[in-house]
Every structure is written in C-alpha cells, then in structure tokens.
Amino acid sequence: MYVRAMMERLDYGFRGFQVPPTARRPRSTRRRGPSKKSAEVGQVCAFELLATLAGKLLQDSESSASSNASEGMNHPAFSQSVVEKERQDEVKPLKAKGIHNGSCAECTVKTEMESQRSIQKCLEHAETDCILECVSVNDNSCSDCWEKVEAEVKSKRFRWENKFEHHSNRLVEIPEDVRESCDGVIKNGFRQEQETSNSGFMASPLNNNFIFKEPLDLCINSPALFDSNSNIKSPFSGGLFPSASFSRHGNDNKLGFRDDDENFLRWNRVWTKSKAFKPPQRCRRIRKLATSKCWKVAPNLKDCKHSRTDEGVIPPYRKRKTCYSFVRYRHGSLFKRRKYFGWGSVITSDGGFSSDSVSNSPDKGMDGDNLNSSAKLHVSKDSHVKFSIKSFRIPELYIEVPKTATVGSLKRKVKETVMAMLEGGLHVGVLLQGKKVRDDNRTLRQSGISCEESLDKLGFMLEPSSMQDSPLVCVGDPSPCKTSQPVRSPETPALDSAITNALHDSLLTNNVNLVESNHDSNSFSTDPIADKITTDSRTLVTVPTRSAEALAVVPVGQKTRHSELVQRRTRRPFSVSEVEALVEAVEELGTGRWRDVKLRAFENADHRTYVDLKDKWKTLVHTAKICPQQRRGEAVPQILLDRVLASHAYWSHHQAKQHTKHHQIVTMNDTVLMASNHM
DNA sequence: GTTAGGG
DNA sequence: CCCTAAC
Predict the structure, then answer these.
(1) Domain Myb-like, which positions (predicted)?
(2) How far is the CA of A411 from the C1' of C7 (A)?
(3) Cβ A49 vs Cβ A259: under 8 Å
(4) Read out DSSP for A589-653?
(5) A587 and A465: one domain?
(6) Structural domain for A610, as ranges
(7) Percentage of residues in chain A with pLDDT exceeding 90?
(8) Who touches strand B, with Cβ under 7 Å?
(9) A612 touches strand C (CB under 7 A)
(10) Is A607 within a domain?
C-alpha cells in the first residue's frame, strides 16, 4: 500500500526556475588568479545593490485564467514590448514598468537608455532569480549623500510605496535593499507558468506594486533617473534626498544605499547558513558546462539584446542530466529547499559609463583565465565603478503532488513553496575575501572594497532573514545544523534518499527496494534533509547545491578563494536501498566500471554521479571492514556489508587475475609474435 | 569523459 | 564529497 501510494505521486525537484543565463564560471576559471584588468583602481565610494528576486508563485490554472492587466505581463513576449514602450515613454510610471517578465539576460541589457532602468528591470525579473545591480558612486558625492541621507532617513520613514504614490515616474529606478525588493515582489504575488515543454517554471510578478515596509537608507544620485526633458526632480523629492547633494556624472546612475548588517534578517527561523559565500558546487558536468562553449548557447542573450558583450552570462545549469534532473519522482516530502538561494555572478557593466571605463571583451569576461571575468570592472578616472550582480538563483525546490493533481494545484504548490522560502525576507551580505563585512558604517574604502583588487574579492550574498549571522557555523558539516533543527514537518517525511530510492526503485528495481526506500525515509527522519524546513536550513547552511546554489555571490576566481567560496554539494547519505542497488550492480559489473554501475543502477538518480558511487563503494568496503561500533550513520545491514566484502574480494581477485591473464596473454602473443618473426 | 586515489 | 592526475 505504501508503495502504491508512493507511486502515485510525482515529485518535482526544482533547482531554480528556468531561466536566464546565469552564469557561473567553470571551476578552472574560478581558480584562476585575480583579474588582470588594467582598469584604474576605482575607489568605490559606495555600492548600490539592487536586487530583485524574481520569483514566481503560482496560481491555479483556473484561477489564473481570470485575467487582469497583469495577466499579459506574464507573457514572455511582453517584456520586450514593454521595454520598447518604455523607450518611448521615459516617464512611464512605475506601474507600467514593474511588469516585465523578461529573462535575466534582459536585465543585463544596458544601453544608455536602459541603464537607468536596469534596476527596475531586475526587479521585474520574474525568473525567480534575484538580480542585483550594483553601482558604485563617487566618493565625494557619496559621503555627502550618506550624511544627508542618514539625516533624511532618520527624520522620515521611507516607504517605497509612498514614493511610488507620490512620484509616478522613475522612482522605480531607485535601488532597494534586496530583501525588501524580494519581499515586496513576493508580497505582490507572482504568477507562475509552467512550461510543459521543458518542465520549466517561470515566474513573473503579478504586478509592479512593490511595497517595502522598512525604511530605506538611500543615497541617491541618479541623474539618469530624470528625464532630460522633464523637470529635474529627485525621485525623492519628498525631501528625502535633496538633489542638490548629488553630483551628476554623465549617464551614470549613482546610487547608494546603506544596508545595516545588523538587520541581517532571518529568512526562516529554521534556516541556518554555512559556507554562505561558497558558490554552489554542482556536479562536475555542470561546472564543465560553464565553459566558453556554453556562453554561445545562451539563447536568451540574443533576444535580450545584450548591448554589452562583456557581461558575463552564465549558462543555466538546467538540463544537465547528470546533475539533478529538473523533474523528479519523489516520495514523501512536499518539497525541499536545498542550499542557499543561489549565487550570482558579480559583473560590472560599463553601460553608460565614462569612456575610460575598462571595457571587457567577451573573451576577457568569460575566458577561463580570468577569474574576475565574472566580475567585470569598469573603473573610470573619477573613481566610478559600476558593477552588477546578476541572477541569484533560487534554492532547489522539491515538490510532490499526486499524479491526479491539477496543474493548478501544482502551481499553487510551487507558489507556496517559494512563498514560504521568501516569507522571511532576504538580506544582503557583503563578503570580502569570503569574510562578511559586518560594519555597515565603514566606508568601502575602509573596508578595503575600494579598489579593483578588492572588487575581485568582493562578494554578495542573499540570505534568508532567518539565517544566523554566522555563515560558517555549519560549513562542511551539516550535522550541527541538524541537531539544531528540531523542527520537522510531519507532512514531509520523505527524504532525499527516499525519493531517490523511490525513483530508482520504481524504475529499476523491485518492491523490496520500494519497501526499503520507505524504511529509509523513516530512518532518515533525523536527517535535516528530510524535513522541509530543516532541509531548508540545512540547505542554506551546507550547500548552495547545484540548482539551488547559494545566494552567495562571489567573484569566483582565485584558487585560494576557491576553497572558501565554493559551496559543497549537499551531503546525501546513501540509503539502504541505494546501497543495495550499488552492491548489486558492483557484484555484476565489478569495480572499475563505475559509469556502467551508474547507468545500471542509478541512472535516474541524478544526484549520484559515478564518482559518488565509486566513493560510496570505497566507504562501504571500509565500513565493512571495521567493527559495527565504529560505524556511523545509518546502519547498513550486515548482509549487505558481507556482500560488499565478498564482492570486493572477488573483484579484486578477479581483476588481478584478469590483469595477470591479460599480461600472460600479451606475453604469450609476444612470444608467438617473436616466434613468427623468427619464422 | 572515466577511473583511481588521495584529501 | 572534492580534487586531480592519468588515461
């Protein structure tokens, strides 16, 4: 019965909503040394973070049928049209702007004209990814701004909502704190469209009414926000940001905002973080995918009219079979979120910047040799630096619904999942060489984030507001988090392994395995992964896995940094059924044929690579050799261990034998050959 | 791309 | 699990 029930469900594993090219440089690239850009060292006075989480929530297909103005906004094509329209009407109200559903690539478009809208666009991004735009500002103007802004902010509760109401023009351009942006977007609701064709999910804001509840500390100097033909009026004309205090620099958007680190919110009470700044490490294939080759493939780029080829665009991870399939059959849990939200690449863009800004050629930017390629710098003589962080990925989601569920319910499920994830809000963290910069009052210069070199080591991360402030707590070892995560949802008993097993079992093995998978799931109940919430926390803590990469955005590159920044994959203990499948396969195929083993017994378990299997076998052999008291983790039936030993012994011998045989044959052949030669 | 091993 | 050398 259990088995049957299990089979009746479909489990979906999302590694993020399908989308825009987000890119992550290849590992090799990440390790490369620091960027060798010759740009002048910019003194970044302040940086702006514009972040948006374009997430999407769904609605019932039925309910979604109800159309409203926002309906059309969900259409992929809409985005472009809106953009075009905006070009014609620079003073378009926020409302009109907030409905893009473009791809990330679009967000990266930086024409002079659009640069000012980049932020907004990011916000509009419905790709579940958070797009951040960072714009450095002039030192001088910045300090002035800070003071003024501070005063202003203190005397006034700044609400995005208010701004919007009072200034229906480009206020939308104002950068927002990531968490607020995301929060706002989420609160607004998203529409989710499922593309059955590719099992992808796309998210789009239902509307553009972003409401931010918390006061903002903003330092704005964004001439670009003003229409040259219109009265120059600060978007914050409410008095918050005296335009007089801002200097203008060509088309640069100079924005600055302060982010109080102390406000690091906790995303979810259960969320915890670990190596937050470690970019997720997906399976090798994925990493390898992130090669220059992939860049060319990014289809969205063309459509988005990338005006800057130097903008690093990381290819989507999707569709890498070896690494987590998008859709998975699963048993048990409704969903699981893995790892961090995702990481993004930090990319500076030169859009609209001074002519002397350093322009990076595509090669440069994506070339594996340049670590900083992902973090492009454009430093002008006047110390202006503009850079952007693109596309934070949403954590991997696991959703399970009955086969009989409607598409609408599936959408709802996804929505709920995303909502739950974002409910707590997001917070932005700044990392310098992997270390979080906590003092918000320090200037960038003081923090050492004022030169090209530092930018190379600069990273941003999105964290659930509920996260603890010590990202490293659980680094490398989820167990601590595990124990600290008592919360467990009864409704989500299934575990990763269980799911995997279910999948595997249902497709490859027998009922026995199914039963075991059930058992496994139970046995894993203590595993954080099992619990959705726990999983989340753990996820955040331990891994920005494959699709659900961490929010941490780090300029990947240096080798030294590599170890610190690269996120480790989520640990996924092998279940008994998995072990059995492995043993069975090895018994048949022997060791040394891991690829075959993988194909035979774990083909559908995308999270298990042949290397994983090989490693597991290695540990199994070791486990079998030690006394039970020394064994840890889920107990593997002695019977299986015996089989492991037997197999190991057999194949060791067999291989040796074969080798010997082969050697003998060769020798013999040589002998024969020699003999024949003599003849 | 796979294997094999050390970390 | 990660990372690499070696193939």
Answers:
(1) 566-621
(2) 47
(3) yes
(4) H-TT-HHHHHHHHSTT-TT--HHHHHHHHHHHHHHHHS-GGG--SSPPPHHHHHHHHHHHHHHHH
(5) no
(6) 576-653
(7) 2
(8) A 284-285, 288, 591-596, 610-611, 614-615, 618
(9) yes
(10) yes
User: Both A469 and A616 in a single domain?
Assistant: no
List bases in chain C with any atom under 7 Å of a protein Cβ. Answer: 1-4
Tell me the percentage of chain A whose pLDDT exceeds 70. 18
At A638, which CATH number? 1.10.246.220
Q: Is the CB of A619 under 7 A from strand C?
A: yes
Structure token pair of residue A404: 């009989």
End-to-end CA distance of chain A: 74
What is the number of structural domains in chain A?
Answer: 2
Buried (b) or exposed (e) across A155-191, using 16+ Cβ within 10 A? eeebbbebbbeebebbbbbbbbbbbbbbbbbbbbbbb
Q: Compute and round to an integer the Cα radius of gyration of chain A.
A: 27
A453/A582 same-domain check? no
Q: Are residues A468 and A615 in the same domain?
A: no
* Strand C close to A441 by CB, under 7 A: no
Beta bridge partners of A195: A200
Q: What is the C-alpha to C-alpha distance for residues A187 and A174, in angstroms, rounded to an integer?
A: 19
Measured CA A272 to C1' B1 distance, in angstroms: 36
Tokens of A93: 């109200």
Residue A288 is assigned to a structural domain of this protein:
yes
The span from the CA of A334 to the CA of A400, in Å, is 5
A416 found inside a domain: yes
pLDDT value of position A655:
66
Instruction: Give A615 CA → B6 C1' in Å.
Output: 12
Residues A475 and A582 in one domain: no
Last residue of a domain, one of A466, A481, A496: A481
Does A382 score more than 50 pLDDT? Answer: yes
Longest dimension (CA), chain A: 105
Q: What is the pLDDT of residue A612?
A: 92
Asked if residue A486 belongs to a domain, the reply is no
